[in-house]
Amino acid sequence: MYLLSLISALPLPGSARPIAASDPLPIPTTSVIVIGFVGGFVRHDDMVHSAVQVAAHLRKDYPSGLYVEVLENRGREKAHADIVRWIDTNHDGTVSPEEKQTARIILYGHSWGASEAITLARQLEKEGIPVLLTVQVDSVAKPGENDKVIPTNVAEAANFYQLNGFLHGEPQIRAADPARTHIIGNFRFDYKANPIDCKQYPWYDRLFMKFHTEIECDPKVWGQVESLIHSRLSSLH
Prior knowledge:
By secondary structure, the chain is α/β, with parallel strands linked by helices. It has eight helices and eight strands. 33% of the residues lie in helices and 19% in strands. The strands form two sheets. The chain has a six-stranded parallel sheet with strand order 2-1-3-4-6-8, with helices on both faces. α2 packs parallel to α8 and α3 packs across α5.
């Protein structure tokens, strides 16, 4: 079942409805870190890919109060180092308990990048650093990683997936502790019934990973990803 209508009607965190394109975007009063991870062997600066486009849109929409970075899915350690450096607000080389608790972090990704986002969240959990929101799009677990269970330091999490083809996303994420993490939803898309034209993508992606590529290039899905992020940011204003 194609669930776009359900998602569009879904009350998002910090807002009674998704943020419309015409809505003003308030600048968050506290600095926020947003990190995205691309899937497969995609370059972090390849603007064909939706995860990279989301980062570009956010930089434009929030010229201040927001640090945005998009990385290859092998770049988790760089992302972690950047987070630690960013939340060390007094620049003394040590992240205090107070600095950790005032951290404002959002993580998102596609495919292996979604798995890496959850792995980074789990790494931050061990250090007592909270995460506001994680968003996974057709999440595919990397070897040795668990993209199904959302760690307790994550306040809210959402999962978009499709089940067609040999490569498809994790259909059911769950909270390690439902009292601490709100699962916004697991939202299925069906591209056999509702195909997407991804002509800007390489032919081999469209041939061998057809449906996995279609969710990655679906503007409706990524519009909802951006809406979730905007909504979370608006709650910090």
